[in-house]
Design a protein that fits this description.
The complex is a heterodimer of chains A (394) and B (126). Chain A is built from 9 helices and 20 strands. Chain A has helices spanning 8-13, 33-42, 62-69, 133-141, 187-194, 230-243, 251-260, 295-304, 360-363, and strands at residues 3-4, 18-21, 24-27, 45-48, 53-59, 81-89, 104-114, 122-128, 150-153, 158-164, 201-206, 209-214, 223-229, 247-249, 307-314, 325-330, 333-346, 351-359, 369-373, 376-383. Chain B is of the alpha+beta class and 126 residues long. Chain B is 17% helix and 34% strand. Chain B has 3 helices and 9 strands. Chain B has helices at residues 28-34, 87-91, 116-124; strands spanning 5-7, 12-16, 22-26, 37-41, 48-49, 54-60, 64-68, 73-78, 100-104. Chain B has a 6-stranded antiparallel β-sheet with strand order 1-2-3-9-8-5. Chain B has a 3-stranded antiparallel β-sheet with strand order 4-6-7, with no helix packed on it. The chains are: A alpha+beta (394), B alpha+beta (126). The interface between A and B is medium-sized, with 16 and 9 residues.
Amino acid sequence: MPQRTPLAEWHENNRGRMVDFAGWSMPVQYSSIVSEHLGTRKGVGVFDVSHMGRVAVEGNQAAEWLDSMLTRQVVDLPVCRARYTLITGVAGEEDNVQLDGAPVILDDALVTRLADQKDGSQRFVLVVNASNRQRVVRWLQARLPPEGVTLNDTTEDSAMIAVQGPLVFGHTAEDVFAGPLGSVFGKKVLQQLATLPNYGVLETELSGEPVLVSRTGYTGEDGVEIILGSSQALGLWKCLVEEGSAIPCGLGSRDTLRLEAAMPLYGHELCEKTDPFSAGLGFAVNIDGREFPGAEEMRTRRSSSDRCRIGLVFESRRAARSGDHVLVSKNGTDSICGEITSGSFSPTCERGIALAIVDRAIAEQECELEVLVRGVRLPAKLVSLPFYRRHRHD
Amino acid sequence: MEKSRRYAKSHEWARLEDDGSVTVGISAYAVEALTDLVFMQLPDVGATVTAGESFGEIESVKAVSDLYAPISGTVVAANTDLPSQLETLGSDPYGSGWVVRVQPDSVEQLEALMDQEAYDKLIGGE
C-alpha cells in the first residue's frame, strides 16, 4: 500500500488521477496537464508535495557537520535562507547504504537554515526527493558525530504545499490580499512574505501552529513552498483552492513546468553516476578548499568534464523522451553525440522540448542536430536555457 | 449504426461500412484516459495492417501509446485532418474523429471483437 499524504482523500474526491509515485499515492492531474500548467503560468497553481522528504538537523555542531556532508557550503548560509545542494556518498565503513565503490550522487536537496535556538544550537531543514529519502536518511544517520547533532525524518508528521504562479501575491505590491495567501495569513505576515527574496524563508504561525514558508519552487514561477503539520494541511489546501481560487495541480504539470524552467530532476538530469559539471550543476558543488564525501573525485570530474547540458526545441509537437539519442551530422556522416535526459510537449512553447547532455564541442558550434525518437529522426534546434523565464517586476 | 461498432481490448473501435471497408477509431474511454493529446502518427494509404499489431502512435504530454489494428487488412483512407485537430478525438470519437479506413482481409474478423455490451463491461471493470 502506497503512503498517503494528509491530502490524499481530497485528491480522490476531486477527480485526482492517483498513481503510485516513489511509494506515495499522488495525483498526476485533476483536469488536464496542459490546463494546470497554463493555469500556473497565468495565475496560481497549488501542488501537494508532501511526498518530498523533510529532515530536521539540529544541534550546536549542525552547521559544521552538514557542511562536511553536502557539496554546497553550509557554514556561510545565513539564517532564514535556503540553498540548493547535492548529497554525495562514497562506499566505506559501517555502511547501511549499498554503494559500489566510486562516489555517487545520492540526491539533490534544498538545505534551509532556521533561526538558532536560544541555547545557540543551530537548526536546519533538508528537503530531499521522495524516491531517495530513506537512503539519504540512512546515509546521513550513519555519519552523525557522537554528539552535537540530531537528525529527525519529519516527513510523515508534516505536509508540504507549493503555491506557485505570477499572482501568488496579487497583481501589485499594494494588492497582496488579492492572492490566494490573502485568505490564509494576516496582513503583517503577508507583507513579510511578499518582500522575501528568492530562497528567503519565514518561520511563522498558522492557527497557533508553526509553519515554514520559503520563497522557493519547482515551476519557474514566483511563489512559496509551505511546510506545516499534517493536521493543518487540509485546512490550508481548502483555503487556497476554495477561497483563494488557486488551481489544484498534479505531478504531471509539476514536471512540465520544471522542464520549461530547465530545473533538474533526480533520475533524469542527475543520477548516481552523473558528473554534475556536465549536467550544468557545477554551481551546486563548492569544492575549492572544502571536504565532503567524494570531494576528491568531484575535483577530478571537474577537470575532465567534456560534456554539457543543452536545451533542444523541436519543430513538431512530438517530444523526445529520456534516453533518446542525439545525432549530429558532420560531412555526411551521423554520430551519436549525447542523449536526452528529459523531454515533453511544452504547453508554453506549443512544441516538443528536451534537455540533453552532449559532447561539449557540439554546444560550441552551429550544427544540425537530430534526435532519434522511436525510430524517427526529429530535427532539433539548440536553444539557450531555460525554455521559459518568468517576467520579473522588480 | 451504434450496434455495429465493435471494440478491441486495446480500446480501438471498428465499424463495417456499406462499401465493405471498416472504419477504425479510438474509444471515448481511451481518449479520456489518455488526455492531453499532442501528436498522432497515421499510417500511409496502401499500408497493410495486422490485427493486434501497431499501425500508428498517439502521444500525450506524459507518454507515447501505440495504436493497435483491430483487424488485418489494407489502409484505404487515413483521416489526415486529425493530427492537427486532435481535440476531435475527444469531441466526436465515433464520427469525425475516425482514424483510418481499412479494407479487411475478411469481414469475419469483426466477430472476434467485443460488442458494445462486452466493451462496457470491460471498461466498467477498469
